[in-house]
Fold:
Amino acid sequence: MNKFLLIFFLFFVSNMSAQQTDYVDFKKINAFVSFDSKGKRLAMKVRYEFDIIKDIDSVYIDARNTYHYEFKESNFKIYSKNLDGNKIVFYTPAERKFETGKNYYVEIIFFSFPKSALYFVDNQIWTQGQGKYTSNWLPSIDDVNDKIEFDLSISYDKDFEVTANGELSNVEASDSIKTWHFNMNKPMSSYLVALAIGNYNKKTEVSKSGIPLEYYYYPEDSLKVESTYRYSKQMFDYLEDEIDVPYPWDIYKQVPVKDFLYSGMENTTLTIFSDALMTDSIAFKDRNYVNVNAHELAHHWFGNLVTAKSGEHHWLQEGFATFYALLAERHIFGDDYYYWQLYEYAQELLEQEKLGQSTSILDPKSSSLTFYKKGCWALHILKEQIGEEAFKQAVKNYLTAYQFESAETSVFIQEVEKSSGIDLTEFVETWLKVVELPQDAMVKSLKKSEFIQEYLDVSCDTYPSKCNDYLVSDISGKAKVKILSQESYNVKEEDFKNSWEVRQAIAQNLTEIPLELKKSYESLLNDKSYTTIEVALYNLWMNFPEDRSRYLEKTKDLKGFSDYNVRMLWLALNLNTLEYQSEQKQQVFDELKNYTSANFGFEVRMNAFNFLKLINGFDEDSIKNLVDGTEHHNWRMQQFSKNLLDELSQIESYKKIIDKLTNKG
Ligand SMILES: [Zn+2]
Structure:
């Protein structure tokens, strides 16, 4: 290609690129995908179908990171250019124009080594489009406003489970390879395209409305299925009922993956979530998947069906998903739970405000906290203000009017004004535009809950005369937890008779254990909570050195949460209890060190690194694992590893090893 032509294309594309959706409507993308997972290479044949809305000279697709492509077939004569390695532009030299009202198609073969948006992790392959751009692995349209029907076919080793957006329509098998064909019937933005491959079993249910619900899990996690996916169907049925717009898609699947970038991602019909959220029935009380489950499901209406036109309107996705997830939880856990969460969201927002970091909801640069939790609060207040009926009607009208399209905040507000007959100028100003939180309105709303009112009222500082009786009274568990955190409160024997939640607060607050409470405190090791056990084990070990072996013996079979919180503490305490298992110290140390390796999820690894730091126990193997962590695809792990490595570099003996490993020595 000569220079003149290159300049021509650059000028041309930059001129029209922002508004291609005004000229071109991509209708369908059919991708046949195959992997060379050893080489982390991807080969694809993709067919694009598009309609021309207005005459235009060229059409582009976003194709980040494609190293080679070939045209196969098309119904127009192609001239093309890979622009900056980011876009492929089609141009028709013969006719000069793509003509209004005509349909075009083109088939292209691609080869690439995706560096983001598609990840090879151990024996899994999975994707993350939002924030990463799907066109890093699947050349398509990054603009959220062009909604396209994506149908994926994937060829892979027949021993694996393969899934992608939509219903499985057909499977073809040859010797060792299977091809899975998936079908979508409706269009969506490309950031919602997804696939996941790994070793999975699945459990299936059907919603009240007849939608298949599929819960994927690793074969070894079969005992965690019930507690992880608890309330899934109940929440699905509830949201369909509450939103009063049928679930817009044909199937709903949820798949855990290793070292995921976030908690969960609402890819249409295929929510992908972190396998660290797989919970057993004991962990469930302290940490579970319920909220993330409800949140990603709610996005299937708010985000996937109606998509925010631009960053300014992001709360139409996150604020709504947070609010409807909370409504689903209210349906299951009750009103007190609902108001308690609102109270906690308010605390977080106030904290942000104190730091001077509050923003308007409509500021595209807002924090997640603002989009999610201030957005949720805004909807809570709006519903309170206009009443349940008008609110429901407005949401239904909004979803119906803009289904399979994108929308702005103003059109939602118009729907609410229409259904309620109330002028929302003040609401929009206070909740969406102004930076500062309307604190008085928030407190007023929270106090509608007697549960919150009671929580705010109880205090040993304000009512010292009542203080002694609080823990044996019938105030709520949360109110008792508040009392326990107050300095003037002294824990008594009877206090241990409370619920697990209150007992956990005793474990956390009573760090110096009086001898007369030793027996009661030891009973905390029997509680069915990994948080309580972790804290109690540590405090008992610290307070009563003569009983250390007994405490370790009692907890030797526990792992704890998916990050092995109890086990990791146990190993560190064991190494510091010379009289216990004195012959096995090397084995114990090796186990702790082993948890830093890539065989484990990054949460486990981070935990193990922290304990090694605490006991000053790094060696070449664990430092090597830390150096590897600085290249990890998950930014949390990457950041953690870099920071810790910097810290270790300050220590001379470690610095030598680090320099050797990073070739600086
Ligand atoms: Zn979300």
User: Anything to note?
Assistant: Confidence is low (pLDDT under 50) at residues 1-17. The domain at 1-198 is CATH 2.60.40.1730 (Immunoglobulin-like). The CA atoms of residues 60 and 89 lie 4 Å apart. The two ends are 47 Å apart (CA to CA).
